[in-house]
Amino acid sequence: MNELINSYQDGVERCLRCGICLSVCPIYSEERHEGTVARGKVHLIRKLLEGKLQLTPRLRQYMDLCLGCQACVENCPSQVPTDKIVCAARAQFVKEKGLPLVYYLALRWGLKNPALMSALFTSLGLARNMALTKLLPQTLKDKEEILPPLPAQTFWQQYKKTKPSRRKVAYFVGCLTNLVYPQVGLATLHVLEAAGYEVIAPQAFCCGLPHYSSGDLETARELAGKNVALFDALDVDAILTDCGSCGSALQEYVRWLDNDPRARKFSEKIRDVSEFIVNTAGLKPGMRSLGRTVTYHDSCHLNRSMGVVKEPRAILRALPGVQYEEAIEANRCCGGAGTFNLRHGDLSMKILGRKMENIKATGADTIAVGCPSCRMQLSYGAKKNNVPVDVLHPVELLAMTFSGSDHE
Amino acid sequence: MDTAKPLQELKNLLGEDRVLTKIEDRACYSYDASPYISEPQAVLIPRDTRDISGILKIASKYKMPVIPRGAGTGLSGGCVPVDGVFVLDMSKLNKIIEIDTKNLVAVVQAGVVLADLHRAVESLGLFYPPDPQSMNICTIGGNIATNAGGPRCFKYGVTKDYVLGLEVVLADGRIIRTGGKTIKNVSGYDLTRLFTGSEGTLGVITEVILRLIPLPRAKRTALALFNTLEDGAAAVSGIIERRIVPTTLELMDQDNMILIEKAKGVGFPMDAEAGILIEVDGKPREVAEDINLIAEICKEFGAREVRIAQTPEEAAALWAGRKASFGCLAQSTPSVFIEDATVPRSQLVTAIREFKALAKKYNLRIPILGHAGDGNLHPDICFDEKKPDEVARVEQCIDEMFSIALKLGGTLSGEHGIGIAKRKYVPWEFGEAGADVLRSIKNALDPLHILNPGKVLL
Ligand SMILES: Cc1cc2nc3c(=O)[nH]c(=O)nc-3n(C[C@H](O)[C@H](O)[C@H](O)COP(=O)(O)OP(=O)(O)OC[C@H]3O[C@@H](n4cnc5c(N)ncnc54)[C@H](O)[C@@H]3O)c2cc1C
Questions:
Q1: I need a labelling partner for B421 at 20 to 30 A (CA). Which of A143, B36, B190, B301 fits?
Q2: Number of C-alpha atoms within 13 angstroms, CB side, residue A305?
Q3: Angle B368-B370-B374 (CA atoms, 0-180°, nearest 5)?
Q4: A167 has a pLDDT exceeding 70
Q5: Are A16 and B22 within 8 A, CB to CB?
Q6: Are A350 and A385 a contacting pair, CB within 8 Å?
């Protein structure tokens, strides 16, 4: 019983219930209910392991109410790994109670199958063009609106190989970069090529994070295995991502795949593109002045999982014609959290509202962010809250400073 | 007790979703920050004073016990349920109603988080000094109910020194107001003070009028390290005798500094018996003079080293060690009792030496932090709740610790309150007659014993 959670016994017992997590949890600050914050969740799991609770719908509800932002973990005096405990509990639920149907379809069918995903997105684009989405009921329409306008072509449809070079890096193209923000992928290629790199980009599978955080460990592992195999043969020192969420998952493969040596090698090579540019490739912005006031939003995965904090800011500060303004609570979750915004609309919007207030106070006309999932949420927040800002990846801004002749 | 009927009435009053009875919800309100755990019958979530009044009327009708709970950061089990009580979750009454800059008062609901109040008043150049180190979490209601203190309280006083008036729901559901916006008020008995520190046993605090003062414009920070506790204590007395009143005189003992240094490497020496973090606030010129004078005095009394912060960043670096101490403690032990025995300042060193001897006698680890200005000590008794023999030793040790504190002219609790943890010692401090007076007050205000029963008094 509870075989997927048992290994966290020590972790849950370490909690002293001091409550420091209450002060940093974005959900608790809206809901003010102990079941929504680490202290309560950890106590519930402790009772579960003691055999005094069962895997009930109520328990599942509380395990579900977590953004995975890890603010609690970062601030926990006893270093209780609540994010991992919650994911383990979700996995236990999936194992014993199964996946709800929508999840099943989305995770096991849609996200696992790149061609199908592409087709689905294309049909959504078509439906929008024909104004068919107007026919959706209001709640669904709100949700559909979170997805920004879709590009005419995916990343892979626009992909061109970079020039051969002695210096090579691999590039992991995530689902959202491919389907929603291909311009980020193109900017990543552009910037790396300008720095003298040949970029090797295999057509990767979904990173598996949506599966892992929904408790579908089986599919997460399967996808991890496929991606490890895909990159294993490449003769590169680094595998780059421009998505903090993908990156954090890829770095976890070694744990998901039980310390498999190939997975370890893979995970150790994973680096964020901004961090790579600043610390390895060398940051050389172009001459074109951007004339923008920029603020930066920390993606929780990029910040707390991958530890990338300074480098994107260093890029932004170095760009010509950019005035950088740090926002208060820049590292507070935007409430997007993968599909959290679709599942808990009202709550997510409250968390987003606070984020947008903080951003508005900077006076910035541009938000830079290193994760497409946050970007969708922030773009939606800008629209809903009438904050006139562009939301862009630091690498896109960097690419914009190259005037045509700088590198070609 | 048959709870079906009161539960139905509560649901009629509050709505189904504000009366939580599922085991998962009850478990989430079974604890505070102390080691005690016990589940309530139900969790009630009132929206306003009227709801609370209604709840207490139903509670009186059915003799149903109720516990007000703020944020559950208490360290003595104050809001931990006993015998099937109903928990009253105050955390949603969290509006700052008014900051009155003409009268320098704030009017707030009891569930307001202390740090939110700090931010709101400081943005107007005002200051609410009490600073329990749980300030980012704990509620004003909880602060008043425990009469919370903090590092700044040596200079500025504790919570009770800032409470001007209260709105309280009595055990029978009637609502009263005590005090008001005036600093001076001697009408009748001082009910405001009576409810302050009453730990939820006399009434439910719903609204609060707090005194504010102007925000000091500058502060300076220094860290002084001493080879012996005696030197450190003598320096503290020396500072105060020169008529300097620092805001903060935080004492770390050797065990603490070793713990922190090993985990964080903040540059504490491992062989010093005392580190004292000193902060002064006031006008920029004054604080600069004071901090230098303090450094001289410390050296006069044998400080081996004094570090004065020249910038806010350096000050933060000096604080980093002290701030890390709770985390380092937490990582070093499965369970802990954070005690707050307090003695007159002149007895500080004797108390620390005797507590250290207890640690040896009972084979326990007891690092000590203290607010050296006011003699408030935090002996942190580390143990493993899974080891019954260790738990037994902890109990004996705490018994002796309190008799030492009382023998030295001190008190059981400087700031955390009696709760469950210290109730058996109350007659030790008050004597039988004193305990009788406490009992009479309790009986007068809560004749049915439905408000936080079993707390403070046995
Ligand atoms: C990390 C940490 C650091 C701390 N540092 C300090 C410190 O420096 N100084 C200090 O004094 N304390 C400190 N504490 C202890 C604790 O934070 C204080 O006792 C605080 O005042 C409790 O507030 P709360 O809202 O959490 O109250 P709770 O724990 O919820 O309740 C405490 C008591 O107050 C009663 N109560 C709560 N709200 C009301 C109300 N509205 N009406 C009537 N009764 C009510 C409860 O019944 C209970 O008896 C610390 C605790 C932690 C975990």
A1: B190
A2: 27
A3: 150
A4: yes
A5: no
A6: no
- Residue A83: CA count within 13 A, CB half-sphere: 21
The Å distance, Cα A69 to ligand 1 centre, comes to 27
Look at residues A366, A31, A359, A368 and name the one whose alpha carbon lies nearest to residue A187: A368
In a domain, A149, yes or no: no
| Token couple for B11 | 């649901």
Neighbours of B407 (CB within 10 A): 13
The series of mean pLDDT values per 10 residues for chain B, 458 residues long, is 89 97 97 95 97 98 97 96 94 97 97 98 97 96 97 94 98 96 88 97 98 96 94 90 92 93 90 95 95 96 95 92 89 91 91 94 94 92 93 95 94 91 91 94 97 91
Identify all chain A residues contacting B30, using CB atoms and an 8 Å cutoff. Answer: 43
**Is there a contact between B335 and A77 if contact means CB atoms under 8 Å apart?**
no
Among protein residues, the one with the nearest Cα to ligand 1's atom 18 is B74
Q: How far is CA A335 from CA A350, A378, B112, in A?
A: 8, 9, 23
Which domains are delineated in chain B? Answer: 4-91 (3.30.43.10), 95-214 (3.30.465.10), 218-322 (3.30.70.3450), 333-415 (3.30.70.2740)
Q: Do B115 and B70 contact (CB within 8 A), yes or no?
A: no
Of A279, A300, A327, the one marking the end of a domain is A279
CB-based contact B291:B222 (threshold 8 Å):
yes
What is the position in ligand 1's atom list of the atom closest to the CA of B75?
A: 15
Q: Is the pLDDT of residue A405 over 70?
A: no
Q: Label residue B56 exposed, middle or buried (CB < 10 Å: 0-12, 13-18, 19+).
A: buried
Q: What is the DSSP letter of A301?
A: I
**pLDDT of the residue at B22:** 96
Q: Using a CB-CB distance cutoff of 8 angstroms, which residues of chain B are in contact with residue A25? A: none
Residues A327 and A357 in one domain: yes
Mean pLDDT of chain A: 90
Q: Evaluate whether A18 touches A24 at the Cβ level (below 8 Å).
A: no
DSSP state of B423: G
ipTM: 0.93
Smallest Cα–Cα separation from B150: which of B374, B405, B398? Answer: B374
Q: How far apart are CA B395 and CA B390, in angstroms?
A: 9
CA distance B444 to A172: 72
Query: Residues A161, A233: one domain?
Result: yes
> Chains A and B: how many Cβ contacts under 8 Å?
71
Residues of A with CB under 8 A from a CB of B: 13-14, 16-20, 22-23, 32-35, 40, 43-44, 47, 53, 56, 58-59, 62, 77-79
pLDDT confidence of residue B66: 98
| Tens digits of residue pLDDT in A59-76 | 999 999 999 999 999 999
Write B232-235 long-range contacts (CB < 8 A, 24+). Answer: B232/B273, B232/B274, B232/B275, B232/B276, B232/B372, B233/B274, B233/B348, B233/B349, B233/B372, B234/B301, B234/B302, B235/B276, B235/B297, B235/B298, B235/B300, B235/B301, B235/B302, B235/B303
pLDDT at A130 over 70: no
Token digits of residue B37: 């755990």
Report d(CA A159, CA A156) in Å as an integer: 5
Domain hosting A359: range is 286-400
| Inter-chain residue contact B330 with A18, CB threshold 8 Å | yes
What are the pLDDT digits (tens) for B27-85? 999 999 999 999 999 999 999 999 999 999 999 999 999 999 999 999 999 999 988 89
Query: Looking at the domain assignment, is residue A48 inside a domain?
Result: yes
Token pair, residue B391, equals 């738990």
Shortest distance, CA B110 to any CA of chain A (angstroms): 14
Can you tell me which residue has the tokens 């520190």? B197
Query: β-strands B335-338, B248-253: how paired?
Result: unpaired
- Identity of residue A364: A
